[in-house]
Write a structure and sequence with these properties.
The protein is mainly α. It has two domains: 57 residues, no CATH class; 53 residues, no CATH class. The chain is built from five helices and no strands. It is globular, with a radius of gyration of 19 Å.
């Protein structure tokens, strides 16, 4: 399977019968939910056949595992990353972190693209596809 889309992940589709049908019954919650304390532990449980997981696209690039195959979910809405702090607890250090994080995001467009789209060709910092 090279990719799936959100409709194919719905109950009853042909592609998901082998995985989701084994783990879930339509209209019912999963038979078991496994909580992990780290991404590494999550990968080990999935590789051992104890679970399946939906994770970020960046995981395919940065946390490869010999027992896993990452399958992109095409046309899915992007996820959002947020920085949060307790109400009334803003600090100059936190404000500076947000400022630097936004500056790096805006300056390093090729790096952001590679993190957000690990299955696509890289782009240059000028926004064009890198060839070569």
């Amino acid at each position: 399977m090279s990719h799936v889309n959100p409709a194919e992940l719905a109950y009853g589709s042909d592609k998901t019968g082998l995985v989701w049908g084994y783990l879930f019954e339509p209209g019912k919650p999963p038979r078991q939910v496994i909580h992990t304390s780290s991404h590494t532990e999550e990968l080990q449980i999935v590789a051992a056949g104890g679970a399946c997981s939906v994770t970020s696209a960046a995981a395919a690039r940065f946390t490869q595992h010999p027992g896993l195959c990452y399958v992109p979910i095409e046309d899915a809405d992007p996820s959002t990353c947020a920085i949060a702090w307790r109400r009334g607890a803003r600090t100059p250090t936190g404000d500076r972190f947000v400022e630097v994080a936004c500056a790096v995001r805006d300056r390093e467009t090729a790096v952001v693209h590679a993190i957000e789209h690990p299955f696509l060709p890289p782009i240059s910092d000028e926004g064009t596809t890198a060839v070569g």
